[in-house]
Amino acid sequence: MAHTAAAQLPPDVAAKIDERVQAVLDQVQAPSASIAIVVDGKLAYLKAYGKSRLAPDEVAATTETRYAIGSVSKQMVAAAVLLCAEDGKLKLDDQVGKHLAGLTDGERITIRHLLNHTSGYRDFYPQDYVFPAMKLPIKPSGILDQWARVPLDFQPGEQWQYSNTGYTAAGLIVEKVSGRPLIDFMRERIFKPLEMNGVVDHDTRPLAAPDAIGYTRVALGPVRPVTKEGEGWLFAAGPLAMPPSDLAKWNISLINRSLLSAESFREFTTAAVVKDNPRSVKYGLGVNVGEDFSGFQMLSHGGGVAGSTTENRVWPEQRAAITIVVNADWAAATSAIADRIRPLILTNTSDAEAPPPTGVDAEVQAMFVALQSGQIDAAKLTPNAQAYFSAQALSDAATGLGPLGAVKSIRRTAEGLRGGLDYRNYRVTCEHGVVTVVVRSQPDGRYEQFMVDAAVN
User: Fold this and answer.
1) Last residue of some domain: 354, 374, 409?
2) Do residues 289 and 117 touch, judged by C-beta distance below 8 A?
3) Are residues 289 and 425 in the same domain?
4) 432-437: which pairs have CB atoms within 8 A and are 24 or more residues apart?
5) d(Cα 334, Cα 324) in Å, to the nearest integer?
6) Are 193 and 254 in the same domain?
7) What pLDDT is attached to residue 264?
C-alpha cells in the first residue's frame, strides 16, 4: 500500500518511479520506504511505500512519517557551525583547544578538520550494528574522553577518514559558543527559517508511533526490530529524524543558496585537501562534493543508524534532488533506489552500472560458508562481534544463507580504513542468489564486523 501526498511529475514518470522503488523493496524485503523528489527547484513528488511498523499492529507509512536520517544530519550540523562563524562566534580555522580543553593535539586540530574528517580523531562508530556499550546512554563528553583524548590515527590534514567523533566535538563547540543546546540552535537558525516543521531529536528518544520503527536482520534471516543506540551516541553525528519532505526543503535551500552566505556556501562545498593524496578527497563540510558518473555536480550524503538508512542527493545546476529513507539497515536499499530513479529525473543519463572490482579473499569465503551452517569461529572475532553473533543471530544466518547453496564466486568491491579498522566489501555469488558481505577487522586480524546483506541487482 502506498500513500501519495504530491505528484507534479508526468503520470508515466511517476509510475516508473513507483515500479522501481517497489522492485527494490520487494527484493531486499525492507518494510517501507519514503521518497521526496525536487525538480526545477520545487518539490515535485512525495510518496511512501509499505509499513512503518510491523508489530504489534501494522502501520502504513505515509509521507508525514518521520524516519531517522542518521549522518545526513551532518550537513545541518556543519551549517550550524558556519552560521556561528557568520555570527563572529568562531572561525573554521580556530584550534579545537580554544573551545574544548584536553583533546589530543587540540592546539593543532582545527574546527575545519573536524567537519571534513581530516582531524585524525578515531571514529567511535565504524560498525554497522549497535555494539553492547552503545545500548547504554553516554554523554557526548564521554565519547570525546574515549576517542578524542587518545593518540590520533594520523596527523591532522594528512589523511581523510570518516569520523563521527569529529562531529561530536563540533556539536559541543556550537553549544559552547552559542550558549544553547545544539538542537535548539538548529531549530531556530535552520529548521524554522526553512519551515522544516517535522524535525525531531532522535538522539534523546526513540520515534513514537506512528513514525517509523527501525528494523534489522542478520545475513538473510528474519526481519526483526532493532535496538536503538543509547542516548548521547548520536549527538551531532546523526541525531535527526524527519519526513522526507523536510529534507527536500533543505535540498531546495542548497539549490537556491538561501540559508548560508555566499562565503559559507563556498566553504561548505569545497573539498578537503590532504597531504597524502591531494586529489583523493571529495568531501566538503558535512557533504560529499564532486561530479556523479554523468559529469553533473552533485552534493550528497548517506545516513545509517540502527534500523534506518537514508540517501540524499542534490544536483544544484540541474536544480534537482532525490531523498530516500528506508526503515531497514541492510542491503543498501536507499542508494539502489536512488540509482534507479535518477535517470527518470535527470536528462542525458542511463541505467548503466560500472562493473565491480575483482578480487577474492579465501578467509571471508570460508567464514561465509560456515555461517550458512549457523557457525562462526569465535576466536576470529572481537568481543563486540562475538556479542553480535548470539545463538539467535547464528540461527538466523543459517536460515537465510543455507538455501543459497554453494559459493560460485566472491569479489572484493571496496576497501579502506575507518576508525582504526580495515574495511572490505564483497559481492558473493551463490548457486541460488547473490549477497554482499561487509567486514571490518582490527590490525591483529580479528573481525569487529562480519555482516551479510542481500545484493541489489
Assistant:
1) 354
2) no
3) no
4) 432/403, 432/404, 432/405, 433/220, 433/403, 433/404, 435/219, 435/220, 435/401, 435/404, 436/331, 436/332, 437/364, 437/368, 437/410
5) 6
6) yes
7) 97
Please state, in angstroms and rounded to a whole number, the distance separating the CA atoms of residues 157 and 272. 9
pLDDT of 348 reads 56
Give Cα 177 distance to the centre of its chain.
Answer: 28
**Is the Cα torsion angle 18, 23, 24, 28 positive or negative in sign?**
positive
State the residue range of the domain holding 110.
Answer: 1-354
**40-74: pLDDT as tens digits:** 999 999 999 999 999 888 999 999 999 999 999 99
Terminal CA-CA length for the chain: 23
Average pLDDT over residues 395-409: 93
Give me the amino acid identity at 427: R
Separation of alpha carbons 174 and 442, rounded Å = 33
- Cell numbers standing for residue 257: 543558496
Q: What is the CATH number of the domain that holds 439?
A: 3.10.450
- Residues 403, 330, single domain; the answer is no
Distance, CA of 206 to chain centre: 18
The DSSP bridge pattern shows strands 224-225 and 215-216 to be antiparallel
User: Pick from 295, 296, 290, 225: which is nearest to 59 by CA?
Assistant: 225
- List the single range of 172-181, 192-201, 305-314, 357-366 with lowest mean pLDDT: 357-366
For residue 290, list its beta bridge partners: 298
Per the prediction, the chain carries an average pLDDT of 92
What is the helix (H) or strand (E) element at residue 47, kind and residue range?
strand 42-53
Cis-peptide into 56, omega within 30 deg = yes
Instruction: For 24-34, give one letter per residue: b (16+ CB within 10 A) or e.
Output: bbeebbbbbbb
pLDDT of residue 7: 53
* Summary count for the chain: helices (H), strands (E): 12, 17
Q: Are 67 and 226 in contact (CB under 8 A)?
A: no
For the cut 80, the answer to whether the pLDDT of residue 137 exceeds it is yes
Please report, as a single letter, which amino acid is at residue 207: L
**pLDDT for residue 5 is more than 80:** no
Lowest-confidence segment of 244-253, 285-294, 322-331 by average pLDDT: 285-294
Total count of domains within the chain: 2
